[in-house]
Amino acid sequence: MSLSDLSELLGVPLTTLYAWRHRGEGPAGYRIGGHVRFRRVDVEAWLASCAESSSPAGR
Length: 59
Fold this sequence. Notes:
By secondary structure, the chain is mostly helical. The protein has helices at residues 3-10, 14-23, 40-54; strands spanning 30-32, 35-37. Helices cover 56% and strands 10% of the residues. A two-stranded antiparallel sheet has the order 1-2. The chain is globular, with a radius of gyration of 13 Å.
């Protein structure tokens, strides 16, 4: 998926995605011919890790 697709899926601005990439945060992305692309499986794994790290311990 493209940066625009990911922006729409997550409901965050493109500038946030660019900032995350610059800081090495967010889902893994790949450069393909000058374009950044994301595999859905990587996005889903990243989302799952965010949910796990934000859930309270002991629940």
